[in-house]
Specification:
The protein has about 270 residues and is mainly alpha-helical. It has twelve helices and two strands. About 70% of the residues lie in helices and about 5% in strands.
Length: about 270
């Protein structure tokens, strides 16, 4: 067996696909793409908040609230949720064997390296270069500091009911690999469309150094795409491997509830 060590993301995706019988993978992948198409057509993808952020409508006061709300709803727990998903891969071993358990962990780890501050494009004497201060969550707190907010402000912030509901869409799934990866995949698909406009608004209306900071990680490019664009499709691959036909209806409903909840969260933020 020839092993391709030079294209880890492609190799991991191929291994995930081959961990299932071909017909089952095709059926699962078609199901996931139906969810993606539904999300693409959902009102969240053209939410008025996006255009208003593109135009820099929100001032410093509103942006402070945005960051605290988002921090509680997503940033504080996102890495935790991915780590949980790596752990819940153990639920796959009985059905898919050792490689079926390890392959999604491998793909999730590629995402986790980015989240934790490694730079997969650079090497050093210890292997991949990186530093904890480059982690996305630390960079998020650096941005909070530039906005005049402290770690204590984040820790003791009283979130809105909608921020609580968004956070619960992750935390309620922590024991269920299929449901958790569905939530992660949906969130990756939805967040991409907000990241660039949010970065533009921050750049226009605050003194935050966007270049090289949290908002450069998520979406501030001339093309409007994010550095983490691979993460969304990676997560759909992980979900497509684990979902089974008897759970299609349940997972479609879960995806709809999740995205509807996040759209209501966007409604709330647009009110500022």
């Amino acid at each position: 067996m020839t092993v391709d060590l030079l294209h880890p993301r492609k190799s991991a995706r191929d291994t995930l696909r081959k961990s299932l019988p071909s017909a089952q993978w095709e059926q699962n992948w078609a199901f996931t793409q139906d969810i993606v198409k539904w999300i693409d057509a959902h009102r969240i993808m053209s939410h008025p908040l996006i255009q208003r952020m593109n135009e820099g409508d929100f001032d410093l006061k509103a942006l402070k609230v945005f960051h605290l709300e988002f921090g509680f709803a997503f940033a504080q727990i996102f890495t935790d949720a991915v780590l949980r998903a790596m752990g819940t891969c153990t639920q796959l071993e009985r059905r898919l064997g050792p490689l079926g358990k390890v392959a999604p962990r491998f793909l999730l780890q590629l995402n986790m390296l980015d989240e934790l501050g490694f730079d997969g494009h650079k090497t050093c004497e210890d292997g991949i270069s990186g530093h904890p201060v480059e982690s996305h969550y630390v960079k998020f707190h650096d941005t909070l500091a530039q906005l005049g907010l402290t770690h204590e402000d984040m820790l003791f912030y009283r979130p809105s009911p909608l921020a609580l509901a968004c956070r619960q869409t992750f935390e309620a799934t922590y024991a269920d690999h299929t449901a958790l990866t569905c939530a992660l995949a949906c969130s990756e698909s939805c967040f991409d469309v907000f990241a660039g406009p949010w970065a533009k608004n921050v750049e226009k209306r605050t003194e935050v150094k966007v270049e090289g900071g949290y908002h450069s990680i998520h979406g501030l490019t001339e093309e409007g795409t994010g550095i983490d664009d691979d993460h969304s499709e990676d997560m759909w691959y992980v979900f497509a491997q684990t979902v089974t036909p008897e759970r299609y209806r349940e997972m479609r409903l879960a995806a709809e509830i999740q995205v509807d909840t996040w759209a209501e969260f966007a409604d709330y933020l647009e009110s500022f």
